[in-house]
Amino acid sequence: MVWSLLVILINFAGALAIFLFGMKLMSEGLQKIAGSKMRTVLASATSNPLKGILAGTVVTTAIQSSSATTVMVVSFVNAGLLSLAGAIAVIMGANIGTTVTAWIITLFGLGEASGAFSFPLLAMAVSLPFMFSKRDKLKSIGEFIIGLALLLIGMEFLQGAMPNLEEYPRFLEALGQLSGYGFWSILIFILIGAALTCVVQASAAMMAITLVMCYKGWIGFDVAVALVMGQNIGTTITANLAAMVANSTAKKAARAHFVFNVLAVVLFLLCFRPLMQFIAHLMLSLKGISPYDPDSARASQAIPLALSIFHTFFNVVGTLVMVWFIPQIIAIVNRMVKTTAEEGEDEFRLKYIAGGYMNTSEIGIEAAKQEIETFSERVLRMYTFLPGLRTATSEEEFSNIVKRIEKYEAITDRMELEITRYLTKISEGDHSRYASQRISSMLRIIDNLESIGDAIYQLAMIRKNKRDTAVHFDQTLNERLAHMNDLVQRSLEVMDANLHGHYHLINLDAAYDAEKAINAYRDELRQKHLNDLREGVYDYSIGSVYSGLYSLYEKLGDYVINVSEAIDSSRKEAATEEEERLQKEHDITADAR
């Protein structure tokens, strides 16, 4: 008995692994096709709830993972790309998008249907030049088809791994007892569904297992519905795990996912019995079979389809009702998560890639882009501390600013290391030439951002040494350095704007104008400095510190323009690749004629 149970568990785990791997391959293939557009779609969801729901539905349908969508949403909220209200709307849409998986399994993955479709799909992917094509999109389509085939094969093996319950009367008796408490049984199985989904970390896998259990006649319709509602609650654990290292607003978005799904379950429990009867009548009209048919064999044939109908109905209707209560959901999560006055501004924290969920290169690149934007904001913030070193009125104030700059410099070192490590990891994957160029450009960008942080730190150290050695500038020198500080500030703002926008829309002219202004003023200061030294306006000790400061400002400006040039190289590669694609399509059309 023990040995037979062990064999069943091993077979079941293997079948589930094939299913999950197929799901992953499907998702990654679709992400490579549309991954670079995911950020744009989600970022556009801020204007109204309807757009947010639509964006969440589209993205989740495309990448076949509600967990991936919600993790992206949490990260976007954390980075300030999405408002909390917009994030809640997207999460509601993600719940709708995830119903597609249940329909794929119901229509193609149960009974003989799985074998009928899986091997022809594999043959299609191998026989057509998808996997061997140099065109990245065709390779990605091939990955998607193979993933779908493996998903269906996994479903077939899951069905085969399910034992005959008549051989295990104790288990059948325990299942019957749990099902015999009326409405309390529904609550019990909701908790079981939530707990199992938390453990498996994949609501699609739990949905597949539930459908197979229905098909095998293990559980009735009411129990299956309860498990599905529990799965909707359990799947929220992924976003909440991702939000553990995020700011309070991102934590609120993750909690909102949980609150929304719990409230939807409560709403449907209030009208549970009428809703079940409605679906039973609908099945009789569509298939002539009821999920409550006294003949258990006939009922087991009807339950998977009825369950998919309920799953879709539950998420669509739940969203349409709960969307009107977004302000109330926000009020609830505001009570659950308290916002501190200062969100750990001076602490090191990767905002977008810390969770590690996005391992597909196309989406991973977008994740890195958001992290680089945060890096840019960090060095801009660090730069704003410099004027305070000149205007500090006490040793304590001066020392606190120096310590803060030192802390930020250490943070920039860590950010460079972590983002470089992340980009290096995703560069090992299979991705397009443009993606490869973007990774290369991003590595240059973060190297120069870290150099900007170093230069700011060096400027602070020169100021500290100046104060320690009692070197004093007159008003003229201070005004000249203040103007140079403003010119570099302008160049940093242009750089930051270019990093936050689409790389193909980079304003390179503004970046070069800012750089030229810095260089021209540096030349002017150098000439005046030499004249002042000859005329004895100030001595060499003052002149040495002064020249060191304006020269370092100019060097900082060089690092800034390097960032914009790295962005531009990525833009040029994208333009070149697009031209080559259009030329190939033109050649193919010409050959066909």
Describe the structure.
The protein starts with a helix and ends with a helix. The chain is built from 23 helices and no strands. It is mainly alpha-helical. The chain is elongated, with a radius of gyration of 30 Å. It has two domains: 2-336, no CATH class; 361-585, Phosphate transport system protein phou homolog 2, domain 2 (Methane Monooxygenase Hydroxylase, Chain G, domain 1, Up-down Bundle), CATH 1.20.58.220.
How are the secondary structure elements laid out?
Blueprint: H1 2-43, H2 49-63, H3 66-78, H4 84-97, H5 99-108, H6 113-127, H7 136-161, H8 169-178, H9 183-200, H10 203-215, H11 221-234, H12 237-242, H13 248-270, H14 272-287, H15 296-322, H16 326-336, H17 361-383, H18 386-391, H19 395-427, H20 433-468, H21 475-500, H22 508-535, H23 540-592
Helix pairs in contact: 1-2, 1-7, 1-17, 2-4, 3-4, 3-13, 4-13, 4-15, 5-10, 5-15, 6-7, 9-11, 10-11, 10-15, 11-13, 11-15, 13-15, 13-16, 14-15, 17-19, 17-20, 17-21, 19-20, 20-23, 21-22, 21-23, 22-23
Brief digest:
This protein is mainly alpha-helical and 593 residues long. It contains 23 helices and no strands.
As residue ranges, the low-confidence spans are 354-359
Q: Structural class per helix/strand content?
A: mainly alpha
Q: What is the subunit arrangement here?
A: single chain
- The share of residues in helices is over 70%
What would you report as the Rg, rounded to the nearest angstrom? 30 Å
Specify the biggest β-sheet: none
Overall geometry: elongated
Arithmetic mean of pLDDT:
77
Give the DSSP E fraction (strand runs of 2 or more residues): under 5%
| Tally of strands | 0
**Separation of the first and last Cα atoms:** 69 Å
Order of helices and strands: HHHHHHHHHHHHHHHHHHHHHHH
The tally of helices reads: 23
Counting structural domains, the number is 2
